[in-house]
Amino acid sequence: MRIDSHQHYWTMSRSDYGWITPELPVLYRDYLPEDLEAHLKRHDMDGTIVVQAAPTVEETEYLFALADRYDSILGVVGWLELSDPSHREHFERYRKHPKFVGVRIMIQDMPDANRVLEPEYVEALREYAAMDIPIDFLVKSSQLDTLNALLDAVPGVRGVIDHIGKPRIAEQIIEPWSSQIQRAARHPNIYCKLSGLVTEADHEAWEPEHFQAYVEHVVGLFGEDRVMFGTDWPVCLQAASYDEVVDVLEASIPAAWGEKERAKLYGDNAKTFYKLRTE
């Protein structure tokens, strides 16, 4: 099956999304499943993984309510604050929902990324690793050293790095991202999402070839079994349409990849990672 492994929905009246301001006019409106439906049909997508976009329990529950109404939502990645002991209570409630598939740790938004290396975070992640709960990691490239230290501290975690770790594509800078992502790839339970590429590029002047080296590096490190296609729609609309995001990845993946490898990239790996119940 074909799956977009990373996209978002939001309703502005909920006031969860402090980062979406009038200064981001493309994003400053509601985005709901009916807005994505035509794009999914055009690209033969069977459904999506909806990822939290606000650091609130209420937004996660809002996404569950959407998932109850729309078959195109195959899974919901929610939010937990691991420094708050109540995260266990929220998790137990989340896991009762049939479309709950994991949680996301938003290291990107932390004033000090090293917070995730404190005992409360590490111990909580070890608990979730023991339960084999999928964890999305949202990090900027400048935080990859911290993420690698966390992965060393919790070596068994089932994790995926969102947006290939946000390298400096706009500047066409490869290092130290290249070496840092290589270190992360050594952990066999860590996957990488080929998502969010266009928003790390120059929004007004990107070219398809600007992404080639980054995609080739990730694919070479993680292999055909640990990479996932994701659009990061509607965030991607700041720089590219849904169609353009698909085209960028198509132009960057190995030309030698056949039907088997492409099936893994475009859905099978996401189904495996998130342990989707699609029967």
- Mean pLDDT across the residues is 97
Task: Report the CATH C-level class.
Answer: Alpha Beta
Assess the beta-strand content as a share of residues.
Answer: 5-15%
Find the CATH topology: TIM Barrel
Structural class: alpha/beta
Given as residue ranges, the uncertain stretches (5+ residues, pLDDT < 50) are: none
End-to-end Cα distance: 11 Å
Write down the domain tally.
1
Series of H and E elements: EHEHEHEHEHEHEHHEHH
Q: Tell me the CATH superfamily.
A: Metal-dependent hydrolases
**What is the CATH architecture assignment?**
Alpha-Beta Barrel
Number of extended strands: 8
- What is the helix fraction of residues, given as a range? 25-40%
Number of helices: 10
The profile of the biggest β sheet is: 8 strands, parallel
Q: Radius of gyration in whole Å, from Cα? A: 17 Å
- Strand line-up across the major sheet: 1-2-3-4-5-6-7-8
Shape annotation:
globular
Short description:
The chain is α/β, with parallel strands linked by helices and 279 residues long. The protein has helices at residues 33-42, 57-69, 87-94, 119-130, 144-153, 177-185, 197-200, 212-222, 242-252, 259-273, and strands spanning 3-7, 47-51, 73-79, 100-105, 135-137, 159-161, 190-194, 227-229.
